[in-house]
Amino acid sequence: MEKKIAIIGAGISGLLAYFPSQHQVLDYIQSYAHHFDLLKHIKFNTKVVGIEYEGASDEEIGSWSSWNGSGTPFSSQGKWKVVAEDIQSHSTEVYQVDFVILCLGPIQ
User: Does the pTM of the predicted model rise above 0.85?
Assistant: First the structure.
């Protein structure tokens, strides 16, 4: 059976199969970070070694049907605990944050 794909709101440019090179993506990210002065907020030479949601119990989470069951995406009481390791000194630091964005893929 033939598969069909719907592209919604993409315009003609969304139909072109253009993917930027790794170098182009890196240039864009560096330019963006410099423009918005973000480099001071970035921890380089660090890797995440643990991540855990601290908030609702497993039973409560299991009862949520979707979006916390309340129409909001996250509990206002919960936090994420992120453990990061300095790759040179091997020391770790723990951060508590409200949101986590996972960046995965071939250009991570």
Answer: no
